[in-house]
């Protein structure tokens, strides 16, 4: 098999970023996956090198990229297949370096797994993977057999890691999510906080390999070794393949749970939160019958509700304990029903920025209701909608979580009102002042803001604006004439204050 043969496989949807015909005509001897910054000692001539580019970060020096590509060139690698998912695309600096070192570069879309590429190569070169010779594997045969038995017995990932690395002396290894949540670790691996784990993943500390499968940006899994030389890349790749099979089984089991959650959310949205059908729906989701509950809504960029659901599930799993069920409402919105107590809302504030960092170009917001009984879950849903609108209003292009527990001021209450309504209200109440068409109107707007902030004190307003008190009186009279409000009345002051907050 040659490199250009791989490019002709439509199912893989690979894109050639750089490569001259003599390079594409090279024969492929095998495949290896690595995210080591210096992989030379583990590479063989003629291999396709698969890399998720975890070792690179925007802002890194060009020399770092050149060292990686030079290692491939010196080892005689047939081509570099770079994954797009980690950074959204293959960085231009890598294209330039591959051109300079004459290494063919192929882009791998996020939907194409490295496992699919590996199987395509071996199916073409050696035939059916199930009949390939035992010597082709890096893991010992007895280890492979034991891991297969553990998978068949639905063993936990801790048991899989323990057995997979035991023959290597049991090095410290972790199975981590993109937000730093520890899914499993070997017995000798010390505990990590989510913050520490994220630092290891992003700073290139140790050896990290992405687990293949069908994850989104918010729930990717990584196999992480503390020591760079604790396991050869071939062995690490085969262990990652075992973990990928475990994740596939978990996803299959989760499908039934998701159907049960969607059925529960449909009842909540319809206001049918009572009766035997509703009790059965709660039970099917593993939730208590009496509550209290909180409803959480999440939204990404509005076009991918499934990704918002994955983000919500990942955030909620950072706080083990309260049971929850997450899925999609009939309209397609991501939602979760979380059991708990009245004093402790879901702890989303810490993991939410980490989730947004997984996909910073997409807004990510969540709204949390107050505690409600089972019969009032529809009310909780409406509360969560309002809180979600408040979170979006606070950071339209960023990320944030808002809870109705935090709606304790007029400003926070108004933040949940749709933007179009706030704009219309502000324009109607402030009248000509809202348009700021002249320097005079802008001056009056400033006076109004200071006057209200100083609780209607003429003297303090004059002092702050460096004006005579009579000038303040004149300006306030002009404001009253333009807005039709009387600033001696509390309700009119409140109208104008709300209008300023709605701008």
UniProtKB/TrEMBL annotation:
InterPro entries: CdaR-like_regulators (IPR051448), PucR_C-HTH_dom (IPR025736), PucR_C-HTH_sf (IPR042070), PucR_dom (IPR012914)
Origin: domain of life: Bacteria
Positions of transmembrane segments: none
Protein name (Swiss-Prot/TrEMBL): Uncharacterized protein
UniProt source species: Streptomyces noursei (Streptomyces albulus)
Species classification: Bacteria, Bacillati, Actinomycetota, Actinomycetes, Kitasatosporales
């Amino acid at each position: 098999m040659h490199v250009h043969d791989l490019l002709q496989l439509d199912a893989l949807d690979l894109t050639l970023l750089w490569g001259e015909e003599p390079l594409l005509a090279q024969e492929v001897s095998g495949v290896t996956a690595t995210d080591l910054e210096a992989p030379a000692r583990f590479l063989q001539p003629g291999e396709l090198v698969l890399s998720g580019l975890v070792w690179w970060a925007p802002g890194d020096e060009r020399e770092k990229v050149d060292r990686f590509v030079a290692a491939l060139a010196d080892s005689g690698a047939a081509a570099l297949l770079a994954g797009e998912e980690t950074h959204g695309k293959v960085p231009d600096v890598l294209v330039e370096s591959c051109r300079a070192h004459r290494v063919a570069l192929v882009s791998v879309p996020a939907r194409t797994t490295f496992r699919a590429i590996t199987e395509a190569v071996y199916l073409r070169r050696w035939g059916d993977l199930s009949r390939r010779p035992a010597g082709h594997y890096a893991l010992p045969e007895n280890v492979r057999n034991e891991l297969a038995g553990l998978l068949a017995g639905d063993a936990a990932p801790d048991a899989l890691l323990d057995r997979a690395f035991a023959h290597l002396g049991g090095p410290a290894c972790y199975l981590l999510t993109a937000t730093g949540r520890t899914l499993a670790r070997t017995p000798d691996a010390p505990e990590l906080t989510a913050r520490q784990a994220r630092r290891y993943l992003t700073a290139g500390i140790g050896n990290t390999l992405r687990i293949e499968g069908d994850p989104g940006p918010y729930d990717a899994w990584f196999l992480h070794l503390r020591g760079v030389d604790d396991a050869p890349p071939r062995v690490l790749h085969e262990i990652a393949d075992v973990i990928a099979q475990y994740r596939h089984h978990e996803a299959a089991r989760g499908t039934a749970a998701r159907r049960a959650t969607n059925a529960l959310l449909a009842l909540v949205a319809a206001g049918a939160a009572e009766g035997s059908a509703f009790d059965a729906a709660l039970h099917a989701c593993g939730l208590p019958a009496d509550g209290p509950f909180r409803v959480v809504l999440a939204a990404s960029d509005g076009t991918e509700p499934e990704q918002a659901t994955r983000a919500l599930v990942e955030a909620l799993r950072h706080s083990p304990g309260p049971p929850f069920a997450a899925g999609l409402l009939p309209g397609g919105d991501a939602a979760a029903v979380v059991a708990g107590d009245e004093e402790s809302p879901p702890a989303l504030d810490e993991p939410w920025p980490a989730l947004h960092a997984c996909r910073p170009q997409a807004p990510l917001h969540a709204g949390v209701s107050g505690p409600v009984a089972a019969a009032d879950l529809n009310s909780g849903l409406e509360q969560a909608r309002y809180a979600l609108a408040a979170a979006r209003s606070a950071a339209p292009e960023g990320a944030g979580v808002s809870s109705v527990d935090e709606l304790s001021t007029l400003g926070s209450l108004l933040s949940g009102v749709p933007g179009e309504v706030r704009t219309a209200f502000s324009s109607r109440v402030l009248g000509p002042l809202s348009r700021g068409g002249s320097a005079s109107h802008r001056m009056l707007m400033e006076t109004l803001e200071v006057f209200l902030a100083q609780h209607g004190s003429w003297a303090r307003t004059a002092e702050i604006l460096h004006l005579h008190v009579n000038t303040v009186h004149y300006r306030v009279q002009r404001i009253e004439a333009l807005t039709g409000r009387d600033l001696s009345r509390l309700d009119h002051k409140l109208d104008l204050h709300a209008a300023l907050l709605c701008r």
